[in-house]
Amino acid sequence: MTRKQRISIILILGTLATISPFSIDMYLPGFPAIARDLNTTIDQIQLSLTSYLIGIAIGQLLYGPLLDRFGRKKPLYIGLTVYVLASIGCAFTHSANNLIMMRFIQAIGGCAGMVAALALVRDLFPVGEIAKVLSLQTLVISVSPMIAPTVGGYVTAAFGWQFIFLVLAIIVGLVVLGIYFFLPAGRPPDISFSLLPGPVLSNFYSVLRNPQFLTYLLAGGVGAAAPFAYISGSPDVFMNIYKVSEQEYGWIFAFLAAAMIGSTQLNTPLLKRFSSEQLLSFALFWQTCIGILLVVGTVLGWYDKFSLIILIFLFLAGQGLNVPNSSALSLAPFARQAGSASALLGCFRMGIGAVASAAVSVLHNQTVLPMVGVMALCAFIAAIILFIGKKQIILEPPLPDPDESELQETTQPVPLKK
Fold it and tell me: CA 264, CA 324: separation in Å to the nearest integer?
């Protein structure tokens, strides 16, 4: 493909994968206003974020087999249509319980973009370029936390929180047009993939048996849950505890998102000198150390608003090295099963993200500790999993992907050591 086509595809895939992050981040500044209008508490509104993450986790397991069976685009169109309808439902809801339910349905539709984007990267680019392409795609995704809360804050202040969901519906409608006109179809439909529960579960099991996939699924996924604790807890921390406005919160969120964008930019040049595994190990060690500082300093009362923001910035900088490298290492052994592998990867990340988000809500005590405590715990557990799992990969080589010989390209796992 030409350079222009390559850039166009990466931008479209990045935008497609941005649907769910945008849906998460854009309505965060509206939490207090939503709670007031629906006569409920902010921790109840936090559960609408949890339900969204649960919907993404479940939905990705559904779309994985569908994308392998029917090709990439048909399931994608159906999912995004469901998303648009559910977004309109969110805008016109009149109770917290209805919002929680509609957010779940919205996620079921929107997660089609996340699975398809990962699978299409595996379809359209050589194995050796996956980490670099995912870094560029993650860069596009990382722009959403800078834009979405800021836009959401101003929309809430000017028009009301309901308009946030109407804007999301319009954005996804435009994305569908881009997919139709500019995005290649990727791997064609495969009628050999059965949609019956038995074969589907067997296919997922064959993917999970791969020790390389399982290690980086668990380590990368648990590590990636830390930002969801921050996302869930930050509206309450900054707008209720530190009394910032919706607009100020949007700018704080944008500044912190710059941490992920900066480290994502560094990932590509760093891959010229270090392996993906080395960068992932460093990222989790870094986040564990910063997480400990966050917890200890919070308990001892060391931090004001500004010092807390700086430490969270340093913590989130590790995500730009975690996500693309753990994804590349997870997907490398697969070609034919890329859709199912992507679904499992996304399902686990969002599922554990939902657990982290719910934990912040359940532990809510009007302090910063629940948020930073869950963030630190995620990083620590992920580092332990990676340390143990790397030994298993060395002892037990990855299993071959079925029917891999049918493909033109060679799809060996990404080397763990240079």
Answer: 8
Residue 190 in domain: no
Kindly report the number of other CB atoms within 10 A of residue 305's CB atom.
14
Q: How many CB atoms lie within 10 A of CB 299?
A: 13
Distance linking the first and last C-alpha atoms of the chain = 28
DSSP tag of 409? S
The torsion region of residue 77 among left (phi > 0), alpha (psi -120 to 50) and beta comes to: alpha
User: How many domains would you assign to the chain?
Assistant: 1
CATH number for position 244: 1.20.1250.20
Helix (H, G, I), strand (E, B) or coil at 274: coil
In a domain, 403, yes or no: no
Q: How confident is the model at residue 337 (pLDDT cuts 50, 70, 90)?
A: low
Tokens linked to 301 = 């009362």
Q: How far apart are CA 168 and CA 162, in angstroms?
A: 10
Domain that holds residue 214: 3-182+208-396
User: Does residue 197 lie within any of the structural domains?
Assistant: no
Identify whether the C-beta of residue 346 lies closer than 8 Å to the C-beta of residue 118: yes
How does pLDDT run across 56-93, given as a tens digit for each residue?
878 877 777 788 778 778 888 889 999 999 999 999 99
The residues, any chain, with a CB within 8 Å of residue 175's CB and separated by 6 or more, are 15, 16, 19, 80, 113
> Domain for residue 202, yes or no?
no
Residue closest to 283 by CA, chosen among 224, 345, 234, 228 = 224
Q: Are 297 and 311 in contact (CB under 8 A)?
A: yes
Residue 39, sorted as left (phi over 0), alpha (psi -120 to 50) or beta, turns out to be left
